[in-house]
Write a structure and sequence with these properties.
It is a single chain. By secondary structure, this protein is α/β, with parallel strands linked by helices. The chain folds into 2 domains: about 210 residues, Medium-chain alcohol dehydrogenases, catalytic domain (Quinone Oxidoreductase, Chain A, domain 1, Alpha-Beta Complex), CATH 3.90.180.10; about 140 residues, NAD(P)-binding Rossmann-like Domain (Rossmann fold). The chain contains 13 helices and 18 strands. Strands 3, 5, 6, 9, 10, 17 and 18 form a 7-stranded mixed beta sheet that branches. Strands 13-12-11-14-15-16 form a 6-stranded parallel beta sheet, with helices on both faces. Helix 13 links the parallel strand 17 and strand 18. The radius of gyration is 20 Å and the shape is globular. It starts with a strand and ends with a strand.
């Protein structure tokens, strides 16, 4: 069958993307689902910094690449051996298609799945093959390629969701929510009522803020460069909000938390943001980084502080999650009114709007823009 997709053919094009057009809306050939795979009619997809970092060249991926990884859609057909999903099911995509058999999967850490990591780096599905073509093979982005009218994905890339959940809201559970909330719940295992700091208020950061608010974090401090995002953080429950551009920002956080935050979350993908979060973490506290910076960037921390203050520095990828467990759990919290992720959505887009939308994302002028596909 044929499908229209947003295809990246060259990285590092100059900004504005509205002029340089790094994403081409192209009609591709899409093979039927193979064994263990499903055909999805994509209905919505969120725009994430992980997509932007491929466009600007900070996260190299094989080209040409059908972009997008945070999606929601409807199963239209299934390949041989698929039993957990059926046509008509509503699903959220997850960008780590865990195999269930490698060392990390067996150890209960499926987001570190080794076959999934290799497939994602190679631009293939979990089976090692590609289902997209345009004169030659077209690579899949993180096993999903959500900026498409249709997509073939491994069944392990899908989590079934309630049909009542709107697709534009459902999509953000596949990356922003699972990463942000999971950093709080899984990576930090933050106890109820602890003090918390979130640095970086994009979709992932604000999801972390919502996760911390659900745990009654007090005080709950938000830090960003955007006054608009700081104002939104206050509306979503932050007790304090400070601008990262202020040279006294870390000191302000320390004062507001009476000695530093017990749990600090860096969500900006910036070494400077991580250094700020570390500086504002309390003695004996935990700093969690879920942002992805350029692979060449290095951090420098004072060794004595790490030891003498019994600090913890942790990385969290994909919310340190078990997607099949966590996505339904977070959706339940949303449906119960405990995780109001609808406030993360800023703009709704068409495929033709994507280049301009990535300008807004690069400028920090949006929280979570969502591509809406179909009726």
């Amino acid at each position: 069958m044929k499908t229209r997709s947003a295809v990246l053919v060259e990285t590092g094009r100059s900004r504005p993307y509205a002029a340089s057009r790094p994403l081409e809306i192209t009609e591709l050939e899409l093979d039927p689902p193979g064994p263990g795979e499903v055909l999805l009619r994509m209905r919505a997809a969120g725009l994430c910094h992980s997509d932007l970092s491929v466009i600007d060249g900070n996260r190299p991926r094989p080209l040409p690449l059908a972009l997008g990884h945070e999606g929601a859609g409807i199963v239209e057909a299934v390949g041989a051996g698929v039993t957990a999903l059926a046509p008509g099911d509503h699903v959220v995509t997850t960008f780590v298609a865990t195999c269930g058999h490698c060392g990390p999967c067996l150890a209960g850490r499926p987001v570190l799945c080794e076959p999934a990591m290799r497939a994602n780096a190679a631009g293939t599905l979990l089976c090692g093959e590609r289902r997209l073509h345009h004169g030659g093979p077209v690579n899949h982005h993180l096993g999903v390629s959500a900026f498409s009218e249709h997509a073939v994905v491994a069944q392990e890339s899908c989590v079934r969701i309630p049909a009542a959940l709107p697709f534009d809201q459902a999509a953000v559970f596949g990356c922003a929510v699972i990463t942000g909330v999971g950093s709080v719940v899984n990576a930090a295992a933050m106890p109820r009522g602890a003090s918390a700091l979130v640095v970086g208020l994009g979709g992932v950061g604000l999801a972390a803020l919502l996760g911390a608010r659900r745990l009654d974090a007090s005080p709950l401090v938000a830090v960003d460069l955007s006054e608009d995002k700081l104002a939104l953080a206050r509306r979503l429950g932050a007790t304090h909000a400070f601008n990262a551009a202020d040279p006294d920002c870390a000191a302000q956080v320390v004062e507001a938390t009476a000695g530093g935050a017990a749990y600090a979350f860096e969500m900006a993908g910036s070494v400077a943001a991580l250094e700020l979060a570390w500086a504002a973490t309390a003695r004996g506290g935990t700093t969690v980084s879920a942002g992805l910076s350029h692979p060449d960037r290095m951090i420098t921390l004072r060794h004595l502080t790490l030891v003498a203050e019994e600090r913890t520095l942790k990385g969290s990828y994909h919310g340190s999650a078990v997607p099949a467990r966590d996505i339904p759990r977070y959706i339940d919290w949303y449906l119960a009114g405990e995780l109001p992720v609808q406030h993360l959505l800023s703009e709704r887009l068409r495929l033709e709007d994507l280049n301009e939308a990535f300008d807004r994302l690069a400028d920090g002028r949006s929280v979570r823009q969502v591509l809406v596909l179909g009726d």
